[in-house]
Queue: 2 jobs
Job 1
Amino acid sequence: MSQALASANPDSTQPLDRNWRSTPAVMQFVNAMGAGLFGADYNSLTSTRDPISGPALEVLIAVKSRGVRTASKPQEHIAERIANILTNGETITDRFTKAARPARPSDIALLVCRHTTAARYAEELRARRVPVRISEDGWAKSPVVVAARAALAFAANPADIHSGLLLRTLGPDPLLLQAALSAQTDGRLVDDPVLIRLAALSDQMASLPIGAALDLVLSVTGLRLWADSQPDAAGSRADLLRLEAEANEFEGAHRDLKAASGFHGETAKVFLGWLDARAGERDFDRRPDPAANSAEAVEIVTWHASKGREWPITVVAELDSGIEDWPGSTTTRFDALDRIDNMAVVLDSAALVHTPGFAAPEATRRFIEDRRADFEANAKNLLYVALTRARDRVVLEWPGFLKEREDGTPEATNLFHVFMDNCAPQIGTNSLKVGGIDCPAVIKQMPEQVGFTEFANRVVNVAPRFGPARPLAETPLSPWRLQPSQSRSMGKVPETCSIALGEPWSKTVNDAARGTALHLALRTYLNRPDLAPRLLSATSVDEGTLELISERANALKKWLAAEGYTDLAAEIPVLGFTRDGAEIPGTIDLLAIGPKGCLLIDHKSGGSGEGFGPYWPQLSSYAGLLAKLFPQHPLKGLAIFWVDHGRLELADASVPSADPTQIGTTR
């Protein structure tokens, strides 16, 4: 539109011939680039600033693509370069004092094309402790917003158990999910103090304006204080404030407009439905920036959003971004902009241009190529915007990983192609030639593996907190998980009787892989002999060894049957807890069950083959767990089956076993 106005009124326009933003060295690159992109339509600009020391142009050649798995990605190289600029104290010229000073995070902007890519760059910068400002999505799924919506829904309808559970397991002073579900099953959740206070508001919710209702709910639940205690306190508080602003906007909207959209009434339920209906709106899920423009941080913005702004150092990334419309997108076009003096004609020429998507790529290409002139014109404008934001230095992420275009498809498909086709850049030793003009530059080819520099940020932004800061009381720690072999209360190792179940095998190397294979083979021969033919491929054990294991299994099964244990259960997972709450996970190799009780057997490969060896703590712990988990099967005996030695070492169950609640404690 602006171009059409300028073309229609040439006598009323005066092109700029000076630039007040960038240094002469930066403007040399900008003018060379602008002449290449726009030809005779470009007006060269003269810098009004004095020259400064230091590089005006950096080219960081990334040789590995964004999808590489074995090397560093472009975003890692860019984050490392920014961290080095800040850590090494590289200087910029202060905009107000005109004096040179070390660069601060807010002096640097990183320009990207897509919000999804921006998040990846932000992640790498934060990993290096570089503060970042970025417009991120995720407001609707922010914990404080989810908790506040659940609280509002429960206050409006105390029968909404899902909202109550969500609030109490996510919000302030949360309950464990299992505890909350158990409380609901037992009918005790309604006695929760937080939910009682919310339920008491239900009679008022229908008559209160939504803004007042939300304020009351936030006060009753303490969600504002909880937001201040989150890791990102400022961001959480800003998310909550935006929810309150949305409530005020809903309250102020005309009821006829809301009714026309299908929202009748002013209640909390209608407000929550209104929020859900807006979820698909552009930027609706964007999180608010709690620092506005005052944060001391590297700012990550899109190329489009950078228009009209400036920074001392601008890092321009994602030159490999595509320029073509996605199939299924729709844009507008005005064919009579040359008649801008007659707005009625211009409006009559308006058209919607849809780019369809077909299963056949060549059919889609025909529609895309029809709009190529528009794509490339937009790409030129976007390139010029992004590459002219710097005051002192431009840092280019050079996509050296892009493949050469094929002879049959010379058309530009991304921003870098447009830049190459129009500006013909050539990388020299210490320069970048653009349109035949040598621009001094620092040229760096990025290594396959990037370094890792942490920025020691000296700027500390402490959010104000009310009340005295008191340290938390020290709490003694205990293990969260223990193995049964860590028992300390299993008593004396019992005497065993030895039962021969075959001749010992020749000595073999025992390792974890072999032990796992033996266990699998024994379980198969004992419980599912019909699957035995599959063991060769499943275990990689040779046929001779499998035959020996089959004989061992048959001998054990025969002996157990003779003793009355005909029901065999293998690989039983068990889980107990100590008095301090630590988990005790384990697996019982074999539980032989008979009419009078059961026999607990643990398979061992290798070892001495005598008694219980060093495995009594483990076996004793399993026995203690078994009494609680299977009280219907009294334990009659404990045994270790020494597979290699062909011997079953059996002890009577009258021997004291370990108390599961005492595992890991001292006697």
Note: The longest strand covers residues 583-594.
Job 2
Amino acid sequence: MNGKDNIGYSNDENDIPLKRRQNDDNFSTLTIGPDSRNEENSNDNNEDNDEPSALMKFYEKNKKIIKFILIVLTHIIVGSYFAYATYFFVDSENKHRTWEIYPDPNNTNITDGRCHGSCGFQFCDGYGMLLIVTCIVYICLIYYYIIKPVTEKPIGRLYDNTIKKILIKRVTKTLTVAKIFGIILAILVIIGIAIYLFIETKDDPKRLVSLAGPFVFISLGYIFSADRQAIKWRPVLVGITGQFILGVICIRWDVGRKIFQCLGDKVVTFLNYSRPGSIFVYGAKLVEWNTFYFALLSVIFFFSFFISILYYLGAMQFVVQKIGWMISSLLGTTACESLNAGANIFLGMSESPLLIRPYLNLLTHSEIHAVMASGFATVSGTVLAAYVSYGASAALLITSSVMAAPAALGMAKLYYPENEKTKTGSNQIQMEKSGDSSILDAASNGASNAIPIVLGIAANIIAFIAFIAFLNGIINWLGYLVGLDNIDFEWVMSKVFMPISWIIGIEWSECEKVGRVIAAKTVVNEFVAYEKLGALIKANKISPRAAGITTFAICGFANPSSLGIMMGALGTMAPGRKKHITKVAMRSFIVGCFVCFTSASFAGLMMSDEFLAEQQR
């Protein structure tokens, strides 16, 4: 045997191989062929053992029956739980109504943030929420598994044979007819809005000054558009009109305001489940002090974890396609940018792109611009509590984010129109399956994937805030040399924002104070701005109307530190698109600011003295 070989050969005619075996005492011995032959036999036996077991054969043979039984059992369990919950709710209401005849002073219905005892039907809590969720789930199941399979083919044939052949083909043959129809529809909408504004402001015509804001911002968008020839007015007009209509629903209609308030509360509750994990890792003090990195950024780990699970289950792909189709059908925008805009109502600018992360590399320049503008125009549910602690109205904050969703897409398509062929239309997105091997693998990878996102956000926010401090120092020094000690970059920007404060509906006598607040938000961040606004409100230095309009004007993430967060987050999710992201970043930042100002203008039109008095209470 050759000494340098690990496998030797005997001298017999069978030339049986010898294998080296390692003993426990770390000495090597040689084994001859029969052992290796036994190993081969054992491998053959293992291959035989890989055949499906009797249980697997039974499952494969009766898969449909087993699936049907499991579905029936699930519905029986859900139905039984719902029936008992209904009985418990009715019984509790009756008992507590009886007890109220002899009230107990030590008894209270509110103990842990939930209603206990006789609290009535509340759609956002307790049995009311269970009823609504159950109804929504079963309506969707009935539609997708019963109504849709039965009616899809007949309706499709009806559409192809009548509507498509007779109406659509005739209309599309003559573009003039379609244009005339669009013009007539736009005129009718304008007339309807004009009538509403006349009725709404006839007792206070000064509120009409707020109309100057949307007119100025839309005009600037057309003048400075990246490609005026490519502007499609449908998303612009529908987006701005949708912003106005949502304002009416959320500000003037009490039911609409309560619905969005409920949704916002539930999102905040869900995201706050990240706090126990943060407290366990970082300690209670760092989290309870709302330290930015340890308290706020930790939400991204939990949210990425959850989104990864939904992708593995296929639920998120379904949501991307359906919600994207719904919004894009109204505005004519693509599925990804539409879903991102809708998600930004409650989620942050670094959490929302996680919903469309697999498609970020496919987005066009205009779509990236729209994604970033939507993030800058809204705030997340995770920071609403901080704003409210400074004195801002929770209802107005939720309303502002809701109004900004369609307007962000509309304004984005005005300032940076689509001039490329999109790859993320609702009918183009492929329902990609997760590459994870199991739900646990998906959860672990989701949490791990958030690490570079969080680090990128932290690095960018440190750098940008430091740069703003540097600018403040330079301008303060230049002012000091000529005897002006209190001048800094924020002071300069407050003078710039005085005219903007006026065109969104602020009285000129209050424009300087409001301009300082808007400048603080634009130059530093919205936390500082809401702190300044709260101080003005407590000192009664601005009117309730000015405070309400300002709440809308600064309700967005458009500030330098958020610019760094956005570029860091998107750059980490799509490293190949960093060049494109930085190219459209500043333009989307400006669009985000203008969307907030447009929301403030519409709010100034709609907020009556009675509404403002109610918010103060």
Note: The radius of gyration is 31 Å.
